Amino acid sequence: MLLGEYEHTIDDKNRLTLPAKFRSGFGDGVVLSFNQDGCLEAYPVAEYEQTISARITGIDPISKEARVMRRAYFASATVTELDKQGRVVVPANLAQRAKIDKDVVVVGLYDHAEIWDRDAWRVAATEAEGRVDDVAERLAKLD
To answer: Does 143 score more than 80 pLDDT?
Structure first.
């Protein structure tokens, strides 16, 4: 279970130290990919296969929607591993797309983590806090 938010920095070699509480969840590797919200996602490999890959590969591969989704998710994804210090290398192309330079926030979202530029996270978190009551109310009505 990945929970909480942690401020970190990316070093000169593009390495990010993941929070110590998160590391055991990534023992089999990390799938890093760009998220449409402007951050990076970090999934344990098995979780990525069970959730993201399974849903996208389940779409008829002949359809335009499948091609769009495969490009959006798989073209930006990379599989990597944590080093002995719990660091992961953030590829330059992904860091550039997410506008991540040095100061980041790693956010646990139960089954995966997001990696945000620190200033962008503050904006996203404030927006989420402002909407949570309305979203919760709509979701409660779905039951």
So the answer is: no
